[in-house]
Amino acid sequence: MQLIAIASQKGGAGKTTIAQNLAFAAHEKGRKVAIFDLDPQLTSLNQFDKRTLSGTDGEPATIAVTVNRLPQLLRAAKNEGRDLIIFDMPPNIGQESFLIANEVDLVLIPTQPQAYDLEAIEATIAIAATVNTPGAVIINRVPKDMKDLADDARQFVEVKCSYPVAPVVIHDRTQFMEAAAAGSSPIIMHPRTQAAKEIRDLWAWTEERLAQSTKRGTVKPKGEAAA
Question: In degrees rounded to 5, what are phi and psi of residue 131?
Answer without folding.
Answer: -95, 5
